[in-house]
Every structure is written in C-alpha cells, then in structure tokens.
Amino acid sequence: MICPKLDKAKILDLAEKYVIDDRFIIRNYKKGEEIFWAQVETAAGEFKTEEDALAHFEKEFGPYRDEMEDRCFFIEHKESGRVIGTATAWYNNDFKGENYGRVHWVGIMPEFQGRKLAKPLMAQVMVCLAMSHDKAYLTSQTTSYKAINMYKDFGFEPLIEDEDAARAWEYLEDILARYSGQR
Questions:
Q1: pLDDT in tens, the chain (183 residues)
Q2: Burial class (CB in 10 A: 0-12, 13-18, 19+), 7
Q3: 29, 44, 54, 183: which one has the fewest Cβ atoms less than 10 Å from its Cβ?
Q4: What letter does residue 111 receive in the DSSP assignment?
Q5: Residue 137 and residue 3 in contact, taking contact as beta carbons nearer than 8 Å
Q6: What distance in Å separates the CA atoms of residue 73 and residue 126, rounded to the nearest whole number?
Q7: Secondary structure (3-state) at 98
Q8: Predicted structure pTM score
C-alpha cells in the first residue's frame, strides 16, 4: 500500500484523535531493547522463535541503532512495565526509484489486540514519517484485513502492479465491506 502524500495536518489531527488508553504509554526504543522487539514480533507470529527475531533485527537494524532510537516505538503496559506493541517509521531511499517513508514491523501481542492500541501507535509512526518524508508505503497480506482497514484511515491506498495484486485487492474489498457491515 502507498500513501502518495503525507498530509501533515491530517496526520496531526489523527494523532490527537487516537489517544492511547491511560494504562499504556508509547515510547521510543532504546539501544539494548532488541529483545522487546523480538518478543512482540514473535508473539504476533512474524517469527518462529525470539532468536530468529533477534537475528533479523541485527541484520536489518543492527547498523542503525541510533536511527532506531528515533524511529522505532513501543507500547508499554504501565502497571507491568511490559512492552506489548511495536512499530517502526523506517524508510527506503529507492522505492520505485524515489525516497519513501515506510511503516514497518507493526505488531501487538495477541492478548492485547482489540484494545484500540494500534491506531495511536500508527499515529505516532505517521507523525515521525511526516517529519522526514512526503510519501510512505507499507507491505501487508490479505489476512491482515483489520490492519489494512486501519491503514486506509491513515491515507494508504492499494498499490496494484499485477494481476495477482488486483485479485488480492478484489478479495480484500469484499472482506472489508463485510467487516464494516456494508454487505
């Protein structure tokens, strides 16, 4: 999906609208907290083991830990101090030959999903992206229709480049219509 224009005013309005529950805080990653990222992404089903997640973190972000402190966000449960969500406002200097911001590695631990935590986290990511980028993209899959519905709220639209993508979006439009009660 792409957001062809990061509308800073709209993003700031959404950030004010999507306030996180007062039992949680959104904060930045700090060097040495890779394990929290790995725990969330493993629990969310992105990796089989935390070791796999840590290896991926090291490969993708290891050389960029300073940038991660500005671009990676955690949701922390205040009472327990446990990190239960993460998302990264990353970038790609050569996406379709241009510089794009990237919504990357959005994840909420399953037991905390459905508590309206993703939208405030996404708003934080979008504010961060809008400070350095004019447009953004993300990748997803058809099974993430709830997340895709949220991404649409933030101005993302389908990027259809081939017949497989067109079929996937046709399928998703049907699911999203049922999900929102339009069918």
A1: 999 999 999 999 989 999 999 999 999 999 999 999 999 999 999 999 999 999 999 999 999 999 999 999 999 999 999 999 999 999 999 999 999 999 999 999 999 999 999 999 999 999 999 999 999 999 988 668 788 889 999 999 999 999 988 898 898 888 888 776 655
A2: middle
A3: 183
A4: G
A5: yes
A6: 11
A7: strand
A8: 0.92
One-letter amino acid of 115: R
Identify the bridge partners of residue 86 per DSSP, sorted by sequence position: 74, 107
Cα dist. 171→162, 166, 167 in Å? Answer: 14, 9, 6
Strand partners, 108: 85
What tokens appear for 164 in the block? 């497989």
For the chain, the domains span 7-136
7-136 is classed CATH 3.40.630.30:
yes
Per-residue tokens: 78: 């205040």
Token duo for residue 64? 């960029």
Q: What is the Cα–Cα distance from 128 to 105, expressed in whole angstroms? A: 15
State how far Cα 23 lies from the chain centre. Answer: 21
